[in-house]
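Box 3.1 A note on notation
Throughout this textbook, protein chains are presented in two layers. The first layer is the amino acid sequence; the second is a token string describing backbone geometry. Keep the layers aligned when reading.
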Amino acid sequence: MKNITIAIDGFSSTGKSTLAKQLAKHLGYVYVDTGAMYRAITYFAMQIGYIDENFFDSTSLISSLKNITLHFEFNKELGFAEMYLNNTNVEVEIRSLKVSNFVSQVAEISEVRAKLVEQQKEMGANKGIVMDGRDIGTVVFPDAELKIFMTASPETRANRRYQELIQKGDVVSLEEVLQNVQKRDYIDTHRSDSPLKMATDAIEIDNSYLSKEDQFKLVLELVQEHLN
């Protein structure tokens, strides 16, 4: 059976990563969470002091990109690959709301995008990959055999994210999470370099009222059509 490239794009908190992990595991494909890569660079910028609520030294971050190494390591117990920043596991740290508040700003930087897109293209050179993000079907793999664009209402996405954060023990309010979702939507769709948009040949899925199981079945049918 031939291998294909599956590109999953969409707004924040639409469950892109969950779907991508399900597909990769079912198909025996490589899964790459590009959002984790941008989050890792954001976390690096926060740790160094390049970005906070009132300040963003993008020039220094760009100069430091040569000192940043990123890689994924598969965790058998979890069943997916975790993000490593300069050989340190940062999978937990990069999922915080603090990182979420700054990641879209960091992802706007053309030099950051160029560095990561180059790595992402290399990861998918041999196909057999499921990659999710914001510009996978438009920039990273414009020739992907299957492109999915996921969306849901901001309120639905904020509630999902809020529940995830609460379960992890984070102290946040639903209103705070909703504001973060709306802010990220605006930045992601209005940046000059590779803005979030649906590829012309992508299939849009609004999962506001879909269960994870129904969504997986729906997309798996689309995958099988391309494989056959």
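The mean pLDDT is 94. The radius of gyration is 17 Å.
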